[in-house]
Specification:
It is a single chain. This protein is an all-alpha fold. It contains 11 helices and no strands. The two termini are 22 Å apart. 38% of the residues are buried.
């Protein structure tokens, strides 16, 4: 049974609070965040929430050895097993290719992702986009896997911990469903909202797998998260499309 002590409530308050503090004001403006450098910056700063929460609590509660372990898990490439580089690069693209192929057989058009069009028109921006997506994934994983999962597994083990972290991670995104210009606001609160929750929770199992199978490597989870986010924006037209929904189904089935 879960107890109040076994849930890292202080971490969650910080992770949510440091993100929502920036995201809620952006949502209240009702403006497309991508059209304003200020709003874009506020949305990006909010992504720092989980990572900052993990860093703050590690430095306030852990000794020198704990702090060193936190950063080694975040940056040590040697922890990642060679086969995992294949999985990190190929797992999500393979799932998207299958989803696109099946949806095409069912009569849906090929996707025409806006991000892919933008990168094709301005190839010089590719390194910047790659770095931004990597930063986003890293700042989330420092907290969700590097701090919360690391501690949750001591009490519940990998399966229950994946479920708990996945649920809290999913609902951490909630203000984004009111921020104009995000994938989340396009989903609304119908079927695609439920599919988003299912994706976030099932993806947590993949993240735990990558974390544990690579010697508790936050970096492995970060790289898997990075390629996953990139593939969503490079391989689909966004929520509501057959390919997107098929990929959610494959992700959930894979986790099960």
């Amino acid at each position: 049974m879960m107890s109040k002590r076994s849930i890292p409530w202080l971490y969650l308050v910080l992770a949510y609070g440091l993100a929502w503090l920036f995201w809620i004001p952006v949502a209240l403006t009702g403006r497309d965040y991508q059209a304003s450098p200020l709003l874009l910056t506020l949305v990006f700063v909010g992504v720092f929430g989980p990572g900052l929460a993990g860093i703050i609590l590690t430095y306030s509660r852990e000794g020198k050895a704990g702090r060193r372990d936190f950063w080694r898990r975040a940056f040590d490439l040697r922890r990642i097993r060679p086969r995992w580089y294949v999985l990190i690069v190929g797992l999500w693209p393979a799932g998207h290719l299958v989803s696109i192929a099946v949806s095409r057989l069912l009569g849906a058009p090929l996707p025409d992702p806006p991000l892919l069009r933008d990168l094709a028109a301005q190839p010089i921006t590719i390194p910047v986009v790659m770095i931004l997506y990597l930063l986003q994934a890293g700042l989330e994983e420092l907290g969700w896997r590097g701090y919360m999962l690391e501690r949750a597994q001591r009490t519940w083990g990998p399966v229950v911990s994946s479920l708990i972290v996945g649920i809290f991670h999913a609902f951490w995104h909630l203000p984004m469903f009111w921020v104009v210009g995000t994938n989340q606001i396009e989903m609304g609160f119908g079927l695609d909202f439920l599919l988003f929750i299912a994706t976030a929770v099932s993806s947590s199992f993949y993240a735990t797998w990558s974390y544990n199978d690579n010697g508790r490597s936050t970096l492995a989870a970060t790289l898997l998260h990075w390629t996953g986010n990139l593939c969503i924006d490079l391989c689909t037209d966004g929520p509501g499309t057959p390919a997107f929904r098929l990929h959610v189904l494959l992700t959930v089935l894979g986790a099960l």
